[in-house]
Amino acid sequence: MMSLESVILTKLHNALGKEACLSVENVSSQHHGHTHAGNESHFLIRISKDTLPNLNPLKRHRMIYKILQDEFQKTHSIEVNFE
Length: 83
Prior knowledge:
Elements: H1 4-16, E1 22-26, E2 42-47, H2 57-67, H3 69-74, E3 77-82
Parallel strand pairs: 2-3
Antiparallel strand pairs: 1-2
């Protein structure tokens, strides 16, 4: 079974293209002791702005949320940053 981190990365690359410049980091260990903490509870996604250059910031986030709608139900937090 794939880790949730791997699932997120695979879904993003499938939707945005293998050449998309992005990273997915499991930051759950930084939230140890929190109510919803677990081994796969918090993720940080970094995506190059150049990956979706024709979309404004709100539309970029909405697109990512739609791609990962199932994963949002399985985690406590997914932070998405366009850099």
